[in-house]
Amino acid sequence: MNKSTHDCVAIDFGASSGRVMLGRFDGASIQLEELHRFSNDPVMVSGTLHWDVLRLLHEIKQGLAKAAQSGADVRSIGVDTWGVDFALLDERGQMLQNPVHYRDARNTGAVASAAKHYPLQDFYAETGIQFMDWNTAFQLHAIRQAQPELLERADRLLFLPDLFGYFLTGQMTTEYSIAGTSQLLSLSTGDWSEIVMEKLKLPKRLFGKIVPSGTYLGALLPEIQRETGLGSVPVVSVCGHDTQSARAAVPSKTPRFAFLSSGSWSLLGTETDKPIADERSFARNITNEAGFGGTFGFLKNINGLFFIQESRRYFNRDGAQYGYADLERLATEVPRNLALIDPNDPLFVAPGDIPVRVQQYCSNTNQPVPQSIGEIIRCIYESLAQKYKDVLLDLQTCTGKTYDRLHVIGGGAKDGYLCQLTANACGIDVMAGPVEATVLGNLCVQLIQAGKLESIAAAREMLAQGDIKTYRSR
């Protein structure tokens, strides 16, 4: 135990894995230690794709037990996850079902169906969120259409980081950034939109009071303390949405920056003090996601390294052992592709045979069809880089600002091939790192809450001193 450090635990979930990370802050930098890593595998049950949240809670406990065993003087804990998904609880606080995965077929066509009740342009002006079938508002609309009895039985909705916070502390809250993914917040009030609830006939009782990012939630329940060996450690409602935790860790020394949070999803955007929800941003389907300090991530959700993850799984289905480095090498060994896909085409929503669907898309659009593994992977990489260029231009049009560099944060910062392609396509320098942006943002919010860091600006200044690799446009 090092009494000169301030130790915090970040519990970070992505769409395919989770980690429990220890952060040690010595006043000048944060040292990370991975305590526990585990897969996050959805489960298909009777035709519905669910998140296995009880197993994930078990994994959280294992990680917290390792934190206790490490001898760290844990001062606080924070949880972040992906956005939009939720659990419905009854009046006793019991889940009515395991949360449904956002990629489940239940949500297909939900935007078009909801538009019959509330015109999309009005919907966007009210909420400022990019339209996707799996946004919380549309998932609830799909439930209303197919399982109205489920909503009738429900007493409370908890987004996933709030759900895990409830499991750990017994306290129910709704944190601002994760609520901001739902398409249920009013841009004008910063609170739940009564007009959306009225138009979609959603019960108001489901939605609790929204608290700012960085709010103290409560101490670990006695049973959790006994199971893990930790004491009465406080849990902080950090930026529960992983993208907003990552945005908090963009290592920019200036307030004007563009960032790409690169993982299973690519979130490309900038930071604004006020939302931009006008005709130009509506036409480009750009989102305004709430984040720390009342700021907004003005960004576009793009299907990202999900393509590479699912392709690797597909190619290895018969016993092959392709690693990510192998796929990248094969991509570099083939000539430049003449075909490009749209990563956000509905064809690519569901997991599974992504390489086959890449070929199908190219055939359907009368382009050369990639045949080899290398050709398919190169097509994916170049398509992602081109999409980043297009979205960056859209951002500049909507904000009236230009950006001379792009900060790539998250796991994709390790993918040098994609970073270089992105620099080339966008015509600007790419600054790659930190890789653990989401965890670092989670920890920085805890440190701000504890008074150990003055502000997000101070946190970013500190992180800018870390290991950042530059890819020059060529």
Give a written overview of the molecule:
- The chain has 474 residues and is an alpha/beta fold.
- The chain has two domains: 6-237, 2-Layer Sandwich (Nucleotidyltransferase, domain 5), CATH 3.30.420.40; 242-474, ATPase, nucleotide binding domain (Nucleotidyltransferase, domain 5, 2-Layer Sandwich).
- It is built from 18 helices and 19 strands.
- The strands form five sheets. The chain has a seven-stranded mixed sheet with strand order 15-16-14-13-17-18-19, sandwiched between helices. Strands 3-2-1-6-12-11 form a six-stranded mixed sheet, sandwiched between helices. Strands 4-5 form a two-stranded antiparallel ribbon.
- Strand 13 and strand 14 (265-272) form a beta hairpin.
- Helix 10 (242-248) crosses helix 17, helix 13 packs across helix 15 (373-399) and helix 15 (373-399) packs across helix 16.
- The longest helix has 27 residues, at 373-399.
- The radius of gyration is 22 Å and the shape is globular.
- The mean pLDDT is 96.
